[in-house]
Amino acid sequence: MRITELLKKDSVSLGVRVDSKDAAINYLVDLHARVGNITDKAVFKEGIVKREESGSTAIGEGIAIPHAKNKAVTKAGLAAMTVPEGVDYDSLDGQPTNLIFMIAAPEGGSDVHLEVLSRLSMLLIDEDFRKELLASKNVEEFLKVCDKYEAAKFPEEFATEASGSSTAGGKGATEASGSSTAGGKGATEASGSSTAGGKSAAEASDSSAPAYKVLAVTACPTGIAHTYMAAEALEKEGKKLGIPVKAETNGSGGAKNILTDEEIASCDGIIVAADKNVETARFDGKPVLFVKVADGIHKPAELIQKIESGEVPVHHEKGAAKTYSKADGSIGSRIYKHLMNGVSHMLPFVIGGGILTALAFLIDTLCGYGATGGSSFGSCTPLSAFFKYAGGLAMGIMVPVLAGFIAESIADRPGLAVGFLGGLLASSGNAAIAGYTWANDGLSGFQNFIAKFGFTGPAGGNTVSGFLGGIVAGFLAGYIVLLLRKLCDRLPQSLEGIKPTLIYPVVGMFVTAVLMIFIFNPLIGVVNTGLSNMLSALAEKNLLIVLGLILGGMMAVDMGGPINKAAYVYGTMVLGTASELLAAGVSLTDPAVQACYISMAAVMVGGMVPPLGIALACIFFPKKFTKAERNSTVSNIVMGCGFITEGAIPFAAADPGHVIPCTFIGAAIAGALSAAFRCTLMAPHGGLFVFATVGHPLMYIVSWLVGSAVTCILLGLIKKPAQE
Fold first, then answer.
1. At residue 248, what are phi and psi to the nearest 5 degrees?
2. Helix (H, G, I), strand (E, B) or coil at 490
3. Distance CA 159, CA 181 (A)
4. DSSP letters of 214-263?
5. Three-state SS for 291?
6. Nearest 5°: CA angle at 576, between 570 and 582?
7. Which CATH code is given to the segment(s) 182-328?
8. How far apart are CA 392 and CA 353, in angstroms?
9. What is the distance in angstroms between the CA of the first residue and the CA of the last residue of the chain?
10. Tens of pLDDT along 9-54?
11. Please, where in the chain does CATH 3.40.930.10 lie?
């Protein structure tokens, strides 16, 4: 598809004066609306802004190519404007932007925007093309310049130019035509796979053509503008230097102009200009220079000369594909990347299991067991028992999945199994290995340490480390396996086959199990014991509002982890205490009995706040969350209503520094309000479905909504905009 087929006369504006990036975006959105490319300017602009939040589309040299693919677009189209005085568009080179093309692509359509992006990127790298566009006196001339350079770059689509009857483009077009696609393929087929060295398509396909001295791979994480501009810049600079260069592009549309084994074997070296993972095992034994994709655009001569100088080290592949990434810039960002890999795989288990569990409580409530179900609430009927069982299994596997895929992100596939085991140990604790005859008081030394600290026994405590333990286990397993891989590099080649099937899983699982069982699980268990003792002391002093504040806050710290569970276990424990008091003849209105029910009410309302508060924040502050997070809004509302705090875990894991304080404060306020209003609860679970058992239900709802609103507002104020 030609550029001028998408760029109409009424969607081009020359000599525009705008004072900000936002004003420029608004202007171009209006141009799209003018020619009927979009139906909803607000929705389309939201897509444009969202793309800009992940990285500016102003790529330097006075160029910006904003783009969006969403439901507001009725047909693919282009809008363009020139800004002679320039506008600050957050350009990568820090310079004003003068030439802006905005691409609109329909959500359900083809990837036409990718093709157009690639074309624009390859054309706009030509300085003469940019100059002629900016010098255009009217729109007609602007469109003619586009046609002229596109015809020179992609002659197969322009019959007159292909026959050689025209030499359009002057210097810029001549250079552009000298980098036509190899093998006689059409431009759309090649998608930017131009050959270097100024050869025609026929010459490029000729077996006598000289081998490429320098190869390149370009890639960017979003869109493909940077990908193709880097490829074009490297190939053009190679032509100027007399050094044939071929660039493979790894954009959103997949890899194009793929490097062959023969080309790799015969080249002097490879430039990997990438901000995302690319496959590099094929480059083993060759000099490889890893840089940012922006360096491919702005420093092509320097990169090529480094390869030719022989100063680039030889690359030796050690498993996972190597790349330059923005995430490589700091330890924190690398940790975030690994964590998000675990969270993204865990999310379906949280949502699916949580909703199934909520349905179990709803069924029992409808069947009249809300106030009478007791500890069996949620499984009082065959149907509710089924839902609770299935949901419980899904929720139970979320921590192993989290840990497994954190480890997989760190150490590739060998880390997956080891991480799963670490997650299982975190979610199960050490109770399953307690009670054996050798774990008794008569032991001494290391075995006594195992019995008293490592295992849960008569004198032991809770050793379930839960969600937080799963995160620890994932990173632990990943780096253990990574260390094993490095150590095993020294082993003979004949043992290569047993590394992933024997050495990594056996040694990795053993070391991870020892560390989780004897260090991390017990340490978190000690914390749990201390928390339970603290809560009991507050209850004894009748500090109910303080107790409610603490219980509510604890429910929102780790969303189903050990601190959450400590608060919940305390709540269910005092319900048992209340039952014992009533059985002994104590009145229901007795302060001691009421204190038990007030404590349980604070626990549940605190646990209901995080999912609902986050869901509200997704609604009122959508820019603060990714698309995947926003898609879980409804499920979080359901889980909040069902007292399933775990719905907030993916959000807390993705951004703990902002999410956890916000949920903690909101839940603590809800717990304190509930206690202040003397709200009571006699059921151990159920959320909204057991409100019939709540004392002062109206004020209980107020407490819940106020706490959720506080969480929502705080998230909107302090959380940073999401990056996708």
1. -90, 130
2. coil
3. 16
4. EEEEEE-SSSSHHHHHHHHHHHHHHHHHT--EEEEEEETTEEESPPPHHH
5. strand
6. 135
7. 3.40.50.2300
8. 6
9. 28
10. 999 999 999 999 999 999 999 999 999 999 999 999 998 988 887 6
11. 3-177
Q: In angstroms, what CA-CA distances link 274 with 196, 289, 323?
A: 20, 11, 6
Tokens of 82: 């020139």
The upper half-sphere exposure of residue 194, i.e. CA atoms within 13 Å in the direction of its Cβ, equals 32
Tokens 């086959």 sit at which residue?
A: 497
Q: Encoding tokens for residue 171?
A: 């210097």
DSSP H or E run through 712 = helix 697-718
Joined together, the tokens standing for residue 55 give 């990285």
Give the Cα separation of 147 and 129 in Å (integer).
Answer: 11
- C-alpha pair distances (Å), 437 with each of 316, 448, 452, 566: 52, 12, 13, 29
Estimate the share of the chain in helix, then strand, then coil, as percent rounded to the nearest 5: 60, 10, 30
pLDDT digits (tens, 9 = 90+) for 653-693: 778 889 999 999 999 999 999 999 999 887 667 778 767 66
Domain range 3-177, its CATH number among 1.50.10.140, 1.10.3720.10, 3.40.50.300, 3.40.930.10: 3.40.930.10
How many other β-carbons are positioned within 10 Å of the β-carbon of residue 439?
20
- Taking CA 609 as the corner, what is the angle to CA 605 and CA 615, rounded to the nearest 5 degrees? 150
One-letter amino acid at 275 equals D
Q: What percent of the chain has pLDDT over 90?
A: 27
Q: What are the residue ranges of CATH 3.40.50.2300 in the chain?
A: 182-328
Helix (H) or strand (E) holding 160: helix 159-162
Residue pair 517/422 in contact by the 8 Å Cβ criterion: no
529 backbone dihedrals φ, ψ, rounded to 5°: -60, -45
Asked if residue 378 has pLDDT above 80, the reply is: no
549: helix, strand or coil:
helix
C-alpha to C-alpha distance for 713 and 53, rounded to whole angstroms: 21
Give me the pLDDT at residue 646, please: 76
User: Which H or E run includes 79?
Assistant: strand 77-87
Residue 579, token pair as written in the block? 């039952």
**What confidence tens digit (pLDDT) does each residue in 146-193 have?**
888 888 877 766 654 444 444 444 444 333 334 433 333 333 333 334
Radius of gyration of the chain (CA): 31
Give the span between the Cα atoms of 471 and 561, in whole angstroms. 11
* Active site (catalytic) residues: 67, 220
Percent of the chain's residues with pLDDT above 70: 73
